[in-house]
Amino acid sequence: MRRWGLIPLVVVLLTGCGGVTRSVRLETGRGAPIVVTPSAGGTPVEVDEEDFEEAVAVLARAVRPASRPQEEARRLWQVEPRSGSYLYDPRSRRITPLGPDEHLEGDASSADVELTRAYLRWCERTGRPGDCLRLLLEGPTVNGDGRYALAMALAQGAVLEEMLDAFKDMADPQAMLTTVLWTWTTYMVLLAVPEPFSKGLAAVMTATLIAYVGVDTFWNLIVGFKQLVEAADRATTFGALREAGERYGKVMGRNAARAFALLATAAIGSTAPGLAAKVPRLPGAALATVQAESQLSLRFAAVGSVETVAVSAGTVTVALAPGAVAMAANGGGPTPPVGAPRGWGSFSGFKKALGPAGPGKEWHHIVEQTPGNVQRFGPQALHNTENVIPLDKGVHARVSQFYSSIRRNLTGSGGLTVRQWLSTQSYEAQRDFGLRAIENVSKGLWQ
Predict the structure, then answer these.
(1) Domain of 380, in residue numbers
(2) CB-based contacts of 372: which residues, under 8 Å, 6+ apart?
(3) Could you tell me which of 385, 373, 304 has the C-alpha nearest to residue 344?
(4) Residues 251 and 380 reside in one and the same domain
(5) Inter-residue contact 75 to 200 (CB < 8 Å)
(6) Radius of gyration (Cα) for the chain, nearest Å?
(7) Half-sphere exposure (CA, 13 Å, Cβ side) for 337?
(8) Single residue among 278, 305, 328 that ends a domain in this structure
């Protein structure tokens, strides 16, 4: 018998950044797939520290921390274990994983043992003595996916500290943190196989993540994680593992890390529809709506209809359920959606069905609910899940103020307000302008 520390994860890097034109292929089940080239400038949605901590605290209160977070994360993402102790029968050539509490004695290398000791000393130094990240529940040393989880923790220590602050009122903040960390890491492991393919909950997570960070950043996160996997597998010291984590932390950046942590927390214990229902009320959802259209040509209201996402060199393929809301690039403007969003005959009916927009948020009509628009387009075109989104109260107030101002440089008129100028245009033109207004006002470009 012998020990197999880790069945090697085959690492094949997707085509790198240089000279590759990214494309998104939407499969709607109706006719030929829609192929689009994402617009330039897709960047991670900014989520400030206060909004981030408030949101993860609210999400965490709805779930129970896992006692075995790695095992629970595998179950959530339907990922097979690839690490731990294995028995090998040379006659049958069968590999049998041992149980979670079964280990082979005397087979850990001195490097593995020293790295594990260094990890435990790190936990002690950070004020969380013992196996603080639950890396030793399936083996006596830090190995396999545990190395990746530790590297991720080292990569985004500041964001993990923000989460601990958010979880401070929970009975066991550290248990909640490790549950999120393992959920986050295991999802990345799922993407680290050649030609990543996700379905169900993972597909909704992937589409939402792309809406938050943009196609190019998403690509860089996959490539960077593959490099982290290779470096972590080679690392023989805690210092080498720290270097691998810090390199990946620079690739990810603070905004993408917060988006990742936010979505990982929302995913815990969720189904695909459950995660999709939480997304519109997360911080940054309004800007993610803009980015979903510019990067994926996907109406954000349709994220729950994403059935699968496949990533290959140069292309992200998104398969939607029949009747999902999609839009195709056509001279830079959207075409009428496939299917229809859920609508109401009045704004009060909308609010009665969906409830409040969320803490610190207000419902915002992308195409405004002016009397003229109601008469031209009908109430259900305005009071629906595609046009009404939750928006931060401060941003909402600034957008409304902007619409009431005169902007000759944008409208060409010195006498009409933005609202008056916009009211004469088509629904799609108003929607396109409305999405740009949210993005530019949020970023301080339009004041």
Answers:
(1) 340-442
(2) 423
(3) 385
(4) no
(5) no
(6) 24
(7) 24
(8) 278
